[in-house]
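Translate structure to sequence.
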């Protein structure tokens, strides 16, 4: 059992040095950014999502049910069932397996040392695409503080610099302009409208598609935010 847990939870490492040949970028943590003002700020970094985050993940997603249900894929069963301890295991273990196989890099968003949401680089594909999707959520009490924007910038830089993708893309719903603003601030460009793209909250929903290719990634996403005075 101890050996199995060691495989499931290898020690997290800083995102420096040689990249892992099978799952580059996984089990790596990012640098820390500060958002706010020099006298009142939050420290934001990304840490590999681990089994130990179960309680905070469950509590925050239960607390944020109304806003998350409105933008996330329709789930089977009830929200309570999906966020029980059994629901967490059914979510975490396949995601961890995908990370081990190099198909996903799931992060916990850590704010001032505490779990505050999740951001995942998913649907990782090799050549001829060499791309991934990014999706995220942040605990509602932290909205409007620049947390999501900082986390998204860290994830995008990780995708290009540590995973080695050619392209990162994301989607957001037309009635969720705040998410669109986060993605635009990081450098994503709108590419089109995907009609009936995903089944969300009981019905098929449209999404805007945004993307960022390596040839448009002329400076890091973090540097872009620093120049705008949004992080330091």
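Result:
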């Amino acid at each position: 059992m101890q050996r199995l847990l060691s495989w499931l939870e290898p020690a997290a490492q800083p995102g420096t040095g040689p990249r892992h040949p099978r799952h580059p970028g996984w089990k790596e943590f990012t640098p820390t950014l500060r958002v706010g003002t020099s006298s009142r700020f939050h420290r934001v970094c990304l840490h590999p999502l681990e089994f130990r985050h179960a309680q905070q993940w469950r509590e925050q997603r239960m607390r944020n049910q109304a806003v998350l249900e409105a933008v996330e894929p329709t789930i089977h069963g009830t929200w309570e069932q999906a966020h029980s301890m059994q629901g967490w295991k059914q979510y975490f273990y396949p995601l961890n397996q995908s990370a081990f196989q190099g198909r996903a890099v799931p992060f916990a968003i850590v704010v001032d040392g505490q779990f505050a949401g999740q951001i995942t680089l998913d649907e990782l594909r090799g050549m001829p695409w060499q791309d991934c999707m990014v999706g995220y959520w942040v605990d509602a009490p932290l909205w409007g503080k620049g947390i999501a924007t900082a986390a998204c910038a860290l994830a995008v830089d990780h995708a290009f610099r540590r995973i080695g993708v050619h392209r990162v893309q994301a989607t957001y719903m037309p009635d969720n302009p705040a998410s669109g603003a986060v993605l635009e601030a990081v450098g994503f460009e709108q590419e089109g409208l995907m009609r009936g793209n995903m089944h969300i909250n009981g019905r098929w929903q449209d999404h805007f598609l945004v993307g960022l290719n390596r040839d448009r990634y002329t400076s890091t996403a973090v540097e872009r935010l620093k120049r705008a005075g949004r992080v330091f």
